[in-house]
């Protein structure tokens, strides 16, 4: 039999790449997007969920009927819930209240128990999703806490899969790698592998306006004045994750909610790739970087597109949501022309 798998987990990894032809056409380099939405859980987080859970099994930490606990903005939760079903574990997730209802519905559809916690409290506040997950892990017998922000297996998952895939897919010709950083695992693990192959590869992290990561990379200091609420889910942080290897990253660019939102919509309209909000953010990061650091036609740039747009239907893909945010100053599209819906009565 060909292309047949024992269960859904067999489909994790080996995500395809697609050339961007329109949204980056002013940049002379070859730009390839690695589409992590082709994982069965529709995001890059399938890789870490499978790797961390299987590593825990190998170490004898997971007994039958165990409970797996995690903090997540949605994607990691979906992936853990998916792996838990196939492997017979229970799954408890604490999520931020920035997470849209449809993302939570996805988690519940896969049998997860979900705790919704306030986003805009310090990480050490007992109501934060970090602290809630920690408490639940302490209170629940026969449980493990994945702790993706502080788990080095998060980096290892990408070191063993995403990095080698990028090397193989580009036949070793990749010159630049861009990814949004949340836990930092995707970029750190991929970068570590790729820089071992070729130390000249430039690695650029995309941070959120409202997050401390870019300043920390440049100064080694946490600047609390950087911190403010923002809308993009899954990237940027108000703490320093251990899964982020700052020394593997050459530079950070910081993108804001508004420009990332326009770019997400533009990618859907011009490339027919309906990515999540951080898909727009990574392309926006490339555009900003390219304005300061010109590329040439021998450069081969890989962008990680972390997840699928179906999880953002009531957010960045909702015209009403865009207008509520004040994101109406779109230089690329005329809202009335492009975002028009006609009702025939
Ligand atoms: C939508 C989305 N994009 C990007 C990222 C960043 O990936 P990483 O945590 O590996 O840095 C995440 C992580 O939570 C995410 O959910």
TrEMBL record:
<comment type="similarity">
    <text>Belongs to the cysteine synthase/cystathionine beta-synthase family.</text>
</comment>
<protein>
    <submittedName>
        <fullName>Cystathionine beta-synthase</fullName>
        <ecNumber>4.2.1.22</ecNumber>
    </submittedName>
</protein>
<dbReference type="InterPro" id="IPR050214">
    <property type="entry name" value="Cys_Synth/Cystath_Beta-Synth"/>
</dbReference>
<keyword id="KW-0456">Lyase</keyword>
<dbReference type="InterPro" id="IPR036052">
    <property type="entry name" value="TrpB-like_PALP_sf"/>
</dbReference>
<keyword id="KW-0663">Pyridoxal phosphate</keyword>
<dbReference type="GO" id="GO:0009069">
    <property type="term" value="P:serine family amino acid metabolic process"/>
</dbReference>
<feature type="domain" description="Tryptophan synthase beta chain-like PALP">
    <location>
        <begin position="9"/>
        <end position="307"/>
    </location>
</feature>
<dbReference type="GO" id="GO:0044272">
    <property type="term" value="P:sulfur compound biosynthetic process"/>
</dbReference>
<dbReference type="Pfam" id="PF00291">
    <property type="entry name" value="PALP"/>
</dbReference>
<dbReference type="GO" id="GO:0004122">
    <property type="term" value="F:cystathionine beta-synthase activity"/>
</dbReference>
<dbReference type="InterPro" id="IPR001926">
    <property type="entry name" value="TrpB-like_PALP"/>
</dbReference>
<dbReference type="GO" id="GO:0006534">
    <property type="term" value="P:cysteine metabolic process"/>
</dbReference>
